[in-house]
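Support request, priority: normal
Reporter: lab tech (M.K.)
Component: structure prediction queue

Hi team, I submitted a job for proline dehydrogenase from Paenibacillus allorhizoplanae yesterday, and the status page still shows it as pending. I've pasted the exact input below so you can check whether something in the sequence is tripping the parser. The sequence length should be 304 residues. Please let me know if I need to resubmit or if it's stuck on your end.
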Amino acid sequence: MELMMRNMFQSLGKSRAANRLAKKYGLRFGAARFVAGETIQQSINAVRGLNQDGRVATLDHLGEFVFSEEEALESAAMCIQTLDAIAESGVRSNLSLKMTSLGLDISRELCVSSMKRILDRARMHGNFVRIDMEDYAHCQVSLDIYRELRQEYDNVGIVIQAYLFRTLKDIDDLHELGANLRLVKGAYKESPEVAFPEKSAVDENYKVIIQKHLLNGHYTAVASHDEAIINFTKQFVSENNIGKDQFEFQMLYGICEDLQKQLVKEGYRVRIYVPYGVDWFGYFMRRLAERPANVWFVLKNMFK
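Reply from support: The job had stalled in the queue. We restarted it manually and it finished. Here are the results:
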């Protein structure tokens, strides 16, 4: 049953028709728990609240359904506006983005051009940009573009997914760049030909890449709500005398808030991924697919 629900929500997340319907009805039925709002100001207000109790953030203007050059340029403009708003407001937040929202599927050149404009603005503000990793079809091109950008920019990082077979080699290949990586388990539905189908194998690979990247001496963002993974990381850095300035924990907006606050009290840097925008449906569906508890939360809201 759980697998059927996960597959259903992952499929819905890729549906253009469902996305159009979601935009029509807005952030209802519980989506507002996971999405900070539809405007920049709403997202800045959410980050300010996080900052007040010691959490930092990374803002993401959601945009997964981009089918024209015009939409891609609009998405890039929103990323730049977000960086300006962060600087103007003084909140402590980076920027995260998906390169498909910048037109990666339309034109590689268009995407790279927009990335450079975004990184130029981030550098002007002394800020940092994280490239989110998407499904397996976009993995290699994302890493290729990241390598290209690193020739000019040191204020850009990328995400690596533990559930892919290729991940350990990717960690090795990125070592020479001194890459700042966000390490995640992975949230997309992938073929067993390219990804571990068993959770236990994903968890084990996750631990391996956390260890490897930390021991390589590069900044590591451990993005997980799994307390076993978090405790593993805490023990590993303690045993290997790795300073708290070399890593951080990352979690999603609206999930495990008590754990987020507890880690802050223990002196760890905790960064919250704060999504906003009108194109929130695909993100919301992945959150429902990940945890059945999220589905029951939404159902309760529907019948209130």
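The first strand starts at residue 56 and ends at 61. Strands lie at 56-61, 93-97, 129-131, 156-161, 181-184, 220-223, 247-252, 270-276. Let us know if anything else looks off. Ticket resolved.
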